[in-house]
Amino acid sequence: MGLVIGLDYRNPFISPYKEFQRWKLHPSVKPLLEGSKRIGYGARALNEGGLQSIPKLTFPGGCLVGCSPGFMNVPKIKGTHNAMKSAMLAAESIFDTISSDIKQETVGVNPVVYEERIRNSCVWKELQSVRNVRPSFSSSLGLYGGLMYTGLFYVLGRGKEPWTFTHHGKKSCLKAEASMT
């Protein structure tokens, strides 16, 4: 069981813990939990920026892997598989960079091939297909418009629309697809 509240939620004073407790006491949920035993409790911040928010992944001496760059599939709230795959691609890129005959000009290893490998991997393909789900809820479409959009383009179209929404707070709501590839 879990509860996700966006960090951009209108009420900055909301307590996710208290809201989760209230939800568990709801008349339709409480009977499901009676007699059960809690085996764990935790909290986590979800990097839900998606494809539009992925930063430059390499720098001299390292690269961004795992959950930190935002490789989470927002509609499924899953990202462990992408985090592990990004780490595997980073390890391969670092090994190839170290074992290559090209002399490193900078201090430390800069596995620039890692960015290319991520873009050609199943991680990028998955993020590409869900790129508009979260921004559609934050755009002028609103909750119901976001639900309709997600139903049409994610569920039926599998994210093949030729446009990419930007996150709210940006000047334009639509960005050309060519700039994302």
UniProtKB/TrEMBL annotation:
Domain of life: Eukaryota
EC category: oxidoreductase
SUPFAM superfamilies, per the entry: FAD-linked reductases, C-terminal domain, FAD/NAD(P)-binding domain
Cofactor stoichiometry and binding remark: Binds 1 [4Fe-4S] cluster.
E.C. numbers: 1.5.5.1
Keywords in alphabetical order: Electron transport, FAD, Flavoprotein, Iron, Iron-sulfur, Metal-binding, Oxidoreductase, Transport, Ubiquinone
Necessary cofactors: FAD; [4Fe-4S] cluster
Gene3D superfamilies reported in the protein's UniProt record: 3.30.9.90
Catalysed conversion reaction: a ubiquinone + reduced [electron-transfer flavoprotein] = a ubiquinol + oxidized [electron-transfer flavoprotein] + H(+)
Gene Ontology CC, one term: mitochondrial inner membrane
Every ETF-QO/FixC ubiquinone-binding domain range: 1-46
GO molecular function: 4 iron, 4 sulfur cluster binding; electron-transferring-flavoprotein dehydrogenase activity; metal ion binding
InterPro entries: ETF-QO, ETF-QO/FixC_UQ-bd, FAD/NAD-bd_sf
Function, in words: Accepts electrons from ETF and reduces ubiquinone.
PANTHER family listed in its UniProt record: ELECTRON TRANSFER FLAVOPROTEIN-UBIQUINONE OXIDOREDUCTASE, ELECTRON TRANSFER FLAVOPROTEIN-UBIQUINONE OXIDOREDUCTASE, MITOCHONDRIAL
Protein name listed in UniProt: Electron transfer flavoprotein-ubiquinone oxidoreductase
Lineage: Eukaryota, Metazoa, Ecdysozoa, Arthropoda, Crustacea
